[in-house]
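Async update (no meeting this week)

Hi team, since we skipped the sync, here's where things stand on the single-chain job. The sequence we agreed to prioritize is pasted below, unchanged from the tracker. I ran it this morning and attached the output directly underneath so nobody has to dig for it. Comments welcome in thread, and please keep replies under the output.
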Amino acid sequence: MKKLSLITKFLTLLVSANILFGQTPYQTNQYLEDARKNKFLNFEKATHNYKKSIEYFAYKKDTFNLINSINELSELYGHNLDFDKSYDGYWRALYLAEESNDQFSKSRVYQSLGWLYSFYNRNKKALENLDNALNISKKLFSEKKISVDYLISDYFSIANFYRYNRDFETARKYVDSCYIFYNSENNETQNYYLEAEKGFLLAAEGEFPEAEETLEKSYEYFKNNNESYLVIIHYLFARVYQMKGEIEKSKFHFSKSLEVSSTHNSHMNYKIINHKELSKIYYDSKEYKEAFFHIEKAIELENKIFGINSKNNEYLFEIKDKYRIQKNEQEQILKEQKLLKLEHKQKISLLRSTLLFVTLFFLLVFGYMVFKNLKRKHKREKILLKQKQRIKLKETKKAIELKNKELAKSALQLIEKDEFIASLKNALTENKEDLNLTSINKVIKSIQSGVGSNWKEFEARFIDINQDFYKKIKKDFPALTQTDLKICALIKLNFSSKDMASLLGISIESVHTSRYRLRKKLKLERNDNLVEFVSQY
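Output:
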C-alpha cells in the first residue's frame, strides 16, 4: 500500500505538470503537432515526432522551444512509466533553461521534477522543486510576463502534494489559492480540474453529496472535452465510493479507469493503482481468482518500475544525477572564473580609483597653488595700486597746496599793491597844493583801473588749481551766491577778513557780514569751524 500511495501522488502531480490551465507561449512545428496528436494514440509515433521536433529546434538554435519539446517528450515517457528517460529529459531541459536564463521554462521543469521526486518518496526534494516553480511563477506574474494560468498550475501541484501526504488542511489552502487567482480572471467559467480536486477534498471531509455532485459535473466536462482525463475522474469516483462503503460502485469506477487508460494509452501509472484496489475489493469479497488476476497485473507493472532488475529503479534510487554533477562542476568553474574576473575587476577598479584620486589630488593642489598665487599677485597689485594712488593723491594735494600758496602769495602781493596805491593816494592828497592835480589824478586813475581786474585774475587761477571746488560746493548748497562762492574760495586759502576786504574791494564789516550769512547757508552750528568745513571741498 505504500507504493500505491506513492503512485497516487505521481498521478495527480503528473496531471498538474501538463499545462492544464492555459495556452503555452511556445512555438510549434509540424513534428510537434503530429506528436501531440499521437500522444495518447500511438506512443512510438509520438516519441519519433518529439525527437524530430527536438532536432529541428536544436538546428534552429531556438533554446526556448527546444526546452519545451524536451519537456513534452519527458512527460510522454512519464505517462508510459519510462521514468528513466523522463528523468533524464527533465534535467536536460533544466540545464538548458539555467544556461539560457529562461525563468519561465525553469518553472515548468521544476514542477515536473517535483512530481517525479515525489513519486520516489523523496518528498523534501519534491517540495523544494515545486516551491521553486511557484516562486518563479509568482515573480513572473508580478512582472506581468506570464498569465495567471501558470501560477494556478503551480499552486495546484503543491495542493496535490499535500493532499497525498494527507495534509488536507494545507492542501485545501492551496486549492483555495487556485480559486482566488482563477476567479480573479474568470468570473463566469468553471475550471473542472480544480472542481475535481475540490470534490475529492470534500469527500475526505465527509461532504459526500456535494463531493459526488462536483465530480459528476467534472465527469460531464471531460467526457466532452478530454476523455483521457476520465482515467483520473473514474479513479476519484472509485475512492469516494470506497470512503462511503459502496463497494460495487467503487469496483465499477476502478474498472472504468482501467478501461479508459487502455483505450487512450494515457496515465498508465493508474493501472497499478486500479489493479491493486480491485484486488483488495475482490479479496474482501472472497473472489480469489479475480483478486489474484489483479494483484498479478499490479505486480507485473510494479516490477517494470520498481523491480530489482529495473534500470529505472537502479538509476533513480542510486541517484546518478548526471545533470547535477555536470551542473555543479560547471557552477564551480563559473564561480572560479567569476571570482578571478571579480578580483581582476577589483584590481583595475582600485588602480583606476587610485589614479583618479592622485590626479584629483594633484589637480586640487595645483589649482589651490594657482589660485593662491593669483590671489597673492592680485593682492600685491592692489596694494601697489593703492600706494600709487596715495602717492599720486599726495603729490596732487601737495601740488594744489603749493599752487594755492603761490596763489595766496600772489593775492597778497595784489593787496599790498592796492594798499600802496591807497597810501600813495593819501600822500598825494595831503600835498596836493604842490602838485599838478590833473596829472596825478590821471596816474592814480590808471593805477586804480587795475584793481577790478585783480579778482578776475585771482579767480581764474583759483579755478585752474581747484577745478571742482565751485562745482562740488554748489551741488551741496545750490543757494550760494557769487559773493558767497568768492568768500568760500578765500576761506579755503585761509585769507584773513582784512585780506578778503582788500582783494574784494569791500569793507571788513562787509566781509564779516558775508561770513555770517555764509555760515547760515551752510547750516553750520556755532561750534562748527567754517574754515575746516570749506577746506574739505
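Quick observations from my side:
Residues 1-23, 308-320 have pLDDT under 50 and may be disordered.
Residues 322-430 form the longest helix (109 residues).
Reply here if anything looks off.
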